[in-house]
Amino acid sequence: MARKNQRHLGYRLLLANCLTVIACLMLPLGMRQLSALGYLSLPWVLSFSLGAPLESGRWSLQRSRVYRLLALLTFASSMGWYFTGANANQAGFPLLFVWTLLVAWSCERLIRNLAQERLISRDVLMGALAGYLLVGLAAGLLFAVLESLAPGSFLNSVAKDVSLLHGSAGQAARIFSLDFVELNYYAFITLTTTGYGDISPVTPQSQMLSVMVAVSGTIYLALVMGLLISRFTVQDVEEEIAEEQSND
Protein backbone atom coordinates (compact mmCIF):
# COMPACT_ATOMS: atom_id res chain seq x y z
CA MET A 1 0.00 0.00 0.00
CA ALA A 2 2.84 2.39 0.84
CA ARG A 3 4.53 1.69 -2.50
CA LYS A 4 1.26 2.36 -4.31
CA ASN A 5 0.81 5.68 -2.52
CA GLN A 6 4.35 6.69 -3.44
CA ARG A 7 3.70 5.82 -7.07
CA HIS A 8 0.56 7.94 -7.14
CA LEU A 9 2.30 10.83 -5.42
CA GLY A 10 5.07 10.54 -8.00
CA TYR A 11 2.51 10.73 -10.82
CA ARG A 12 1.08 13.93 -9.38
CA LEU A 13 4.48 15.53 -8.82
CA LEU A 14 5.68 14.68 -12.31
CA LEU A 15 2.53 16.08 -13.91
CA ALA A 16 2.76 19.25 -11.79
CA ASN A 17 6.41 19.71 -12.79
CA CYS A 18 5.66 19.30 -16.51
CA LEU A 19 2.68 21.66 -16.37
CA THR A 20 4.80 24.22 -14.51
CA VAL A 21 7.42 24.18 -17.26
CA ILE A 22 4.72 24.62 -19.92
CA ALA A 23 3.15 27.47 -17.93
CA CYS A 24 6.54 29.21 -17.68
CA LEU A 25 6.98 28.91 -21.45
CA MET A 26 3.67 30.76 -21.86
CA LEU A 27 4.90 33.80 -19.91
CA PRO A 28 5.83 37.06 -21.64
CA LEU A 29 9.23 37.34 -23.31
CA GLY A 30 11.91 37.86 -20.68
CA MET A 31 10.11 35.72 -18.09
CA ARG A 32 10.09 32.44 -19.99
CA GLN A 33 13.57 31.69 -18.70
CA LEU A 34 11.89 30.57 -15.48
CA SER A 35 11.23 27.33 -17.34
CA ALA A 36 14.92 26.52 -16.77
CA LEU A 37 14.13 26.01 -13.07
CA GLY A 38 11.43 23.54 -14.00
CA TYR A 39 13.79 21.65 -16.27
CA LEU A 40 16.43 21.56 -13.53
CA SER A 41 13.93 20.09 -11.08
CA LEU A 42 12.78 17.36 -13.48
CA PRO A 43 15.67 14.95 -12.78
CA TRP A 44 14.96 15.17 -9.03
CA VAL A 45 11.23 14.62 -9.55
CA LEU A 46 11.95 11.65 -11.83
CA SER A 47 14.35 10.20 -9.25
CA PHE A 48 11.65 10.41 -6.57
CA SER A 49 8.74 9.32 -8.76
CA LEU A 50 10.37 6.47 -10.65
CA GLY A 51 13.51 5.67 -8.68
CA ALA A 52 11.99 3.06 -6.37
CA PRO A 53 12.68 -0.61 -7.18
CA LEU A 54 9.98 -2.01 -9.42
CA GLU A 55 10.44 -5.57 -8.24
CA SER A 56 11.98 -7.43 -5.34
CA GLY A 57 15.50 -8.69 -5.66
CA ARG A 58 19.05 -7.43 -5.82
CA TRP A 59 19.05 -6.77 -9.57
CA SER A 60 16.03 -4.48 -9.37
CA LEU A 61 17.63 -2.57 -6.50
CA GLN A 62 20.84 -2.10 -8.49
CA ARG A 63 18.92 -0.83 -11.50
CA SER A 64 17.13 1.70 -9.31
CA ARG A 65 20.43 2.95 -7.94
CA VAL A 66 21.87 3.35 -11.43
CA TYR A 67 18.69 5.19 -12.50
CA ARG A 68 18.96 7.65 -9.61
CA LEU A 69 22.65 8.14 -10.40
CA LEU A 70 21.73 8.91 -14.02
CA ALA A 71 19.19 11.47 -12.80
CA LEU A 72 21.90 13.13 -10.69
CA LEU A 73 24.28 13.15 -13.65
CA THR A 74 21.57 14.70 -15.82
CA PHE A 75 21.04 17.46 -13.26
CA ALA A 76 24.78 18.19 -13.15
CA SER A 77 25.01 18.24 -16.95
CA SER A 78 22.00 20.57 -17.13
CA MET A 79 23.58 22.97 -14.65
CA GLY A 80 26.79 22.99 -16.65
CA TRP A 81 24.96 23.68 -19.91
CA TYR A 82 22.60 26.36 -18.61
CA PHE A 83 25.42 28.42 -17.10
CA THR A 84 27.69 28.12 -20.15
CA GLY A 85 27.95 30.95 -22.63
CA ALA A 86 25.93 30.52 -25.81
CA ASN A 87 29.13 30.70 -27.87
CA ALA A 88 30.67 27.73 -25.98
CA ASN A 89 28.30 25.32 -27.70
CA GLN A 90 30.30 22.12 -27.12
CA ALA A 91 28.98 21.97 -23.55
CA GLY A 92 25.72 20.54 -24.86
CA PHE A 93 27.12 17.17 -25.95
CA PRO A 94 26.96 15.48 -22.50
CA LEU A 95 23.46 16.82 -21.88
CA LEU A 96 22.22 15.58 -25.23
CA PHE A 97 23.31 12.05 -24.33
CA VAL A 98 22.25 11.82 -20.68
CA TRP A 99 18.85 13.49 -21.19
CA THR A 100 18.00 11.11 -24.02
CA LEU A 101 18.98 8.12 -21.90
CA LEU A 102 17.16 9.39 -18.80
CA VAL A 103 13.89 10.12 -20.58
CA ALA A 104 13.89 6.81 -22.46
CA TRP A 105 14.53 4.92 -19.22
CA SER A 106 11.96 7.02 -17.37
CA CYS A 107 9.26 6.17 -19.91
CA GLU A 108 10.11 2.48 -19.59
CA ARG A 109 9.88 2.65 -15.79
CA LEU A 110 6.69 4.72 -15.91
CA ILE A 111 4.96 2.23 -18.20
CA ARG A 112 6.03 -0.63 -15.92
CA ASN A 113 4.64 1.29 -12.96
CA LEU A 114 1.35 1.83 -14.78
CA ALA A 115 1.25 -1.89 -15.58
CA GLN A 116 1.24 -2.62 -11.83
CA GLU A 117 -1.97 -0.65 -11.32
CA ARG A 118 -5.05 -2.82 -10.92
CA LEU A 119 -7.56 0.04 -11.12
CA ILE A 120 -7.66 3.05 -13.41
CA SER A 121 -7.90 6.05 -11.10
CA ARG A 122 -7.37 9.76 -11.51
CA ASP A 123 -3.77 9.41 -10.33
CA VAL A 124 -3.07 6.72 -12.94
CA LEU A 125 -4.42 8.95 -15.70
CA MET A 126 -2.23 11.76 -14.36
CA GLY A 127 0.77 9.48 -14.62
CA ALA A 128 -0.02 8.57 -18.21
CA LEU A 129 -0.44 12.23 -19.17
CA ALA A 130 2.73 13.20 -17.30
CA GLY A 131 4.75 10.69 -19.31
CA TYR A 132 3.53 12.14 -22.61
CA LEU A 133 4.30 15.70 -21.52
CA LEU A 134 7.71 14.55 -20.31
CA VAL A 135 8.57 13.21 -23.77
CA GLY A 136 7.50 16.49 -25.37
CA LEU A 137 9.43 18.69 -22.96
CA ALA A 138 12.52 16.51 -23.20
CA ALA A 139 12.31 16.72 -26.99
CA GLY A 140 12.11 20.52 -26.76
CA LEU A 141 15.22 20.58 -24.59
CA LEU A 142 17.08 18.22 -26.92
CA PHE A 143 16.16 20.40 -29.91
CA ALA A 144 17.45 23.45 -28.02
CA VAL A 145 20.71 21.65 -27.20
CA LEU A 146 21.13 20.64 -30.84
CA GLU A 147 20.46 24.21 -31.99
CA SER A 148 23.10 25.47 -29.57
CA LEU A 149 25.57 22.87 -30.84
CA ALA A 150 24.84 23.57 -34.51
CA PRO A 151 23.05 26.92 -35.01
CA GLY A 152 20.72 26.81 -37.99
CA SER A 153 19.63 23.19 -37.46
CA PHE A 154 16.01 24.39 -37.51
CA LEU A 155 14.49 26.97 -39.85
CA ASN A 156 11.55 29.25 -39.10
CA SER A 157 9.91 29.69 -42.49
CA VAL A 158 7.67 32.49 -41.18
CA ALA A 159 10.46 34.68 -39.76
CA LYS A 160 13.67 33.49 -41.39
CA ASP A 161 15.81 36.22 -39.84
CA VAL A 162 14.87 35.34 -36.26
CA SER A 163 16.91 32.77 -34.34
CA LEU A 164 15.04 29.94 -32.68
CA LEU A 165 17.24 30.49 -29.61
CA HIS A 166 16.98 34.24 -29.30
CA GLY A 167 18.08 36.35 -26.37
CA SER A 168 18.80 39.99 -25.73
CA ALA A 169 22.49 39.60 -24.95
CA GLY A 170 23.63 37.88 -28.15
CA GLN A 171 26.28 35.19 -28.19
CA ALA A 172 27.72 36.37 -24.86
CA ALA A 173 24.53 35.36 -23.09
CA ARG A 174 24.27 32.37 -20.82
CA ILE A 175 22.18 29.50 -22.16
CA PHE A 176 19.54 29.93 -19.43
CA SER A 177 18.86 33.49 -20.65
CA LEU A 178 17.79 32.30 -24.10
CA ASP A 179 14.22 31.61 -25.15
CA PHE A 180 13.30 27.98 -25.95
CA VAL A 181 9.57 28.41 -26.57
CA GLU A 182 9.61 27.95 -30.35
CA LEU A 183 11.60 24.73 -30.18
CA ASN A 184 9.32 23.39 -27.44
CA TYR A 185 6.35 24.27 -29.62
CA TYR A 186 7.98 22.43 -32.53
CA ALA A 187 8.72 19.45 -30.28
CA PHE A 188 5.06 18.95 -29.34
CA ILE A 189 3.92 19.51 -32.92
CA THR A 190 6.35 16.79 -33.98
CA LEU A 191 5.36 14.52 -31.09
CA THR A 192 1.70 14.67 -32.11
CA THR A 193 2.68 14.31 -35.82
CA THR A 194 0.65 17.44 -36.62
CA GLY A 195 3.35 19.17 -38.65
CA TYR A 196 2.22 22.73 -39.41
CA GLY A 197 5.37 23.36 -41.45
CA ASP A 198 6.28 26.73 -39.95
CA ILE A 199 9.44 25.30 -38.33
CA SER A 200 11.48 22.71 -40.18
CA PRO A 201 14.61 20.66 -39.45
CA VAL A 202 17.21 21.40 -42.12
CA THR A 203 20.21 19.29 -41.13
CA PRO A 204 20.50 15.48 -41.08
CA GLN A 205 20.94 15.50 -37.29
CA SER A 206 17.84 17.62 -36.63
CA GLN A 207 15.81 15.64 -39.16
CA MET A 208 16.67 12.28 -37.63
CA LEU A 209 16.06 13.61 -34.12
CA SER A 210 12.63 14.82 -35.26
CA VAL A 211 11.89 11.36 -36.65
CA MET A 212 12.88 9.77 -33.35
CA VAL A 213 10.57 12.14 -31.44
CA ALA A 214 7.63 11.44 -33.75
CA VAL A 215 8.13 7.68 -33.49
CA SER A 216 8.57 7.87 -29.70
CA GLY A 217 5.29 9.74 -29.31
CA THR A 218 3.42 7.17 -31.39
CA ILE A 219 4.93 4.21 -29.53
CA TYR A 220 4.24 5.77 -26.12
CA LEU A 221 0.59 6.40 -26.98
CA ALA A 222 0.16 2.89 -28.38
CA LEU A 223 1.65 1.24 -25.29
CA VAL A 224 -0.12 3.38 -22.72
CA MET A 225 -3.50 3.33 -24.49
CA GLY A 226 -3.31 -0.44 -24.85
CA LEU A 227 -2.40 -0.75 -21.18
CA LEU A 228 -5.20 1.54 -19.99
CA ILE A 229 -7.81 -0.12 -22.21
CA SER A 230 -6.83 -3.56 -20.94
CA ARG A 231 -7.04 -2.34 -17.35
CA PHE A 232 -10.47 -0.79 -17.99
CA THR A 233 -11.66 -4.10 -19.43
CA VAL A 234 -10.38 -6.11 -16.46
CA GLN A 235 -11.85 -3.54 -14.08
CA ASP A 236 -15.29 -3.82 -15.72
CA VAL A 237 -15.18 -7.62 -15.58
CA GLU A 238 -14.18 -7.60 -11.90
CA GLU A 239 -16.98 -5.16 -11.09
CA GLU A 240 -19.53 -7.33 -12.90
CA ILE A 241 -18.35 -10.43 -11.04
CA ALA A 242 -18.49 -8.61 -7.72
CA GLU A 243 -22.00 -7.37 -8.50
CA GLU A 244 -23.20 -10.85 -9.43
CA GLN A 245 -21.73 -12.29 -6.22
CA SER A 246 -23.39 -9.61 -4.12
CA ASN A 247 -26.77 -10.32 -5.77
CA ASP A 248 -26.42 -14.02 -5.03
Structural commentary:
The chain is an all-alpha fold. The protein is 69% helix and 2% strand. The protein contains 7 helices and 2 strands. The chain has helices spanning 2-25, 35-50, 58-82, 92-115, 122-149, 181-191, 204-247, and strands at residues 154-156, 199-201. A two-stranded antiparallel sheet has the order 1-2. α1 (2-25) packs across α5 and α5 runs antiparallel to α7 (204-247). The radius of gyration is 20 Å and the shape is globular. The two termini are 30 Å apart. 34% of the residues are buried.
Helix and strand topology:
Elements: H1 2-25, H2 35-50, H3 58-82, H4 92-115, H5 122-149, E1 154-156, H6 181-191, E2 199-201, H7 204-247
Antiparallel strand pairs: 1-2
Helix pairs in contact: 1-2, 1-5, 2-3, 3-4, 4-5, 4-7, 5-6, 5-7
